[in-house]
Input
Amino acid sequence: MLGMDLFAGKKIFVYGLGKTGSTAAFALQQAGANVLVWDDKPEESASVTQEYRLQDPKTLDWSTVHILVKSPGIPLTAPGIAAAMKADVPVVSDVDLLASRSPDANYICITGTNGKSTATALIGHILETSGTLTATGGNLGTPSLSLPWLGDDGTYVLELSSYQLETLSFLTPNVGMLLNLTPDHLERHGSMDKYLQAKLKLFAAMEDVDTNSGVKIMGIDQPILAKAAAKIKDQNIDLITVSVTGLDADISVNSRGILFDTGKKILDLSAFYSLPGQHNWQNVACAWAALRHQITAKQFAAGLKSFRPLPHRMERVCRTKTMTFINDSKATNDEAAAFALKSFDNIYWICGGRPKAGRVLPNCLENLKNVRAAFVIGDAETAFTETLGKADLPVFACGNLEKAVREAYASAIQEGLPRVHILLSPACASFDQFASFEHRGDVFSSLAREIKMKHNQAETQETLINPDERGTA
Output
C-alpha cells in the first residue's frame, strides 16, 4: 500500500480543479510531488495558475507521469484519460489518496442511486454518538483529503459515487454497502448493466480484506440487485442482504416499520420521526447491518433518536397550524420522488426541472393516491403536465418555482384540509433554472418561510378583529 510520502518527487497529473481536485493537488504538493494540473473549464484553470503548473493533457508526454488523479465528473472516455490509460498510467481518485495517507484506518463505504448521503451521514452520526473516532465525507460534500487524520483506530465513513468507483485502486474497505440501483447517470455509463458493474467495483475492492472483517451489504428490493445478490452468494461470498418490501433477506423491515435481524425484532422504526418512509427504513436497516457487531441496539437507537436529516432530503422547512413545507430537492429522479410521495398525506406536489433519460415518472405515477394536485416547473413542464393529466390528477403548469409554491399554497388554503404538505420533490435535475439541487432547495425554503410569515400575520390579524365585525364590509 502506498503512503503519501511515496509521492514525493513523482510527477502527478491532477485532472479537474473543483473541490475534489483542488484538495488533492494541495495535498500532493505538500507531500513533495511534482504536481501538474488542468481543468477543461478555463476559469477553473486560471484560478490556480499561481499555485500550480498548468498542463494541457493533449500535449502531455504521458510516459513521464507516474499517476493521474481524476476528478469524478470527468469520464474515462475523455481524451486525456484515454491517453493516460493507453500509456499504462494509473488513474486514481482522491479516495485512493486518502487510503494511501491512512492505510490502517477503518473504512465504511456506501454507494447506491438514492439515499447514500443520508445513509453515510447516519452511520457517521451513530458511530460518533457511540464514542468511535469518526470522520464522514467523500461524495457527500467534504473531499476525502479534507478529512482529518484519525490514526489506526479511526473510522472513515465515505459516500462513493459510481464515478469514484470507476477508478478505485488503493482503497480496501472494511464495510462495503450498495443500497439500491435505479436508472440514473445512464448518459455516462450507457446501460443499467454497466452502471451496476461500476457499483460492484466496491465489492471487488474488498477481495483483499480478511473474510472475518470485510462486510458486504446489498439492498435487494430492485430485481437487478436481487439477481446480482443471488449470483454473489452462489460464489460462496458472504453477503448481507436487506429488504424493506417483504423479500426474504438477512435484515428486513416490515410494512409497519419493525426492523428484524435474521428473524429477531430489533427496533420499531416508526417511532423515529426524523426518518420517515420506506426509503429511510432501508437506510437504517443497512446502517444496522454495518454496525451490528460494533455497537449495541441501545446505542444504535440513541443515535437514531438524535440524528437530524440532511438538508434538501425530505427536510421539514417550516409549518403553520395545518400546513408543512417539505424540501426534497435532492430527489432528482423518479424513484427518489416516489419515495416522498409515499411518505406524506394530502400532498401539493411541486415537480419538474431538467428531466433525466428514460420513461416519464413511472414510479411516481404508481404513487399518486396521496397527491391532491401537481405544480410543474422547468424543462419538464410540457411532458410532466401531459403525463400527470392523463392520470386524472389536477395539474398546473407554473413555469418557475416561485409561482409553483404560491399556487400550491393557494390551492391548499382553498381546499382547507386539516393537515397538508407542500412538497418540493422534483424528480428532475435542477440545472435548467438553478445552479444545483441545493440552490433549488434554498430558494424553495426561502419562499416557504416568506409565505409562513405572511400566513401567520394574516391569522393574527384575523384574531384581532372583533367577532361582531367579522364578515362585514
User: Anything to note?
Assistant: Confidence is low (pLDDT under 50) at residues 466-473. The chain has three domains: 4-92, 99-306, 315-461. The domain at 99-306 is CATH 3.40.1190.10 (UDP-N-acetylmuramoyl-L-alanine:D-glutamate ligase). The longest strand covers residues 371-377.
